[in-house]
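hey so u asked for the seq, here:
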Amino acid sequence: MKFQEMTAASLAKTDRLNTLVLVPIAAVEQHGPHMPTGTDTILCTAVAEAVEARMRDQTLLMPTVWLGASAHHLRLGATLSSELQNYVAMLCDIASSLLRDGHRRLLFVNGHGGNLDPMYVALRTLQPEYVDSLLAGTNYWSVADDLIRETLEGDHKFVGHACEFETSMILHVRPELVDQSLLADAGKLLPDDVDGVFVSRDMRQRTRAGYTGRPDLASAEKGKRLFDGVVDRMVSTVEKLLGEPLEIEYRDF
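ran it, structure tokens below
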């Protein structure tokens, strides 16, 4: 089920107890010289729509929130960003609109690393008021860490930015949007921690050209394997979340 394609009358008939609301959240920002600014939105939407297509009677898919928390990209240009406090408030507003309408299970499906911390804050903010609901959030790729490590050839065995993973995924989903003549090794990525201590740096400080890893090793074949695997894992995760009890005390579980 897709929220924006349904009438108010049909939405009113939705089984709020046994349906998981999927809220894709993404970004529009620079993705190096070779990738479209809408990469995160395109990929997050594609994954969420594929999950909904396989679980149409059990999921309610919201429109993708394309504006993200992307201040760490602003100095590179070609980026749209929300202030952190505004972003947290926006996620809370979207979720509380659904929860006040009786929905009991909600999953933020995130497609941009910068959204992760404010997403957690939003969930923590909401939870005390909606203690009888399931409130969850994940990066869409987090459910497939093992597959990602097995598939990527470069030293970066994780999802970075306009990297081998994202470039492969776009080559599978929207290949015409990738400038393959500009695919190159991103060079060294400056870490954001020292001995486990977080150091806040933006992408202009951490990267040579606003992207990471080895997009030059990307391929549409890898992208298909990754996309299909991520969707399979997400479907499995959604099934587990639908089976989670909606209890309010430890002893009730």
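The chain has a mean pLDDT of 97. Helices lie at 8-12, 39-54, 84-100, 116-126, 145-151, 164-173, 203-206, 220-243.
lmk if thats what u needed
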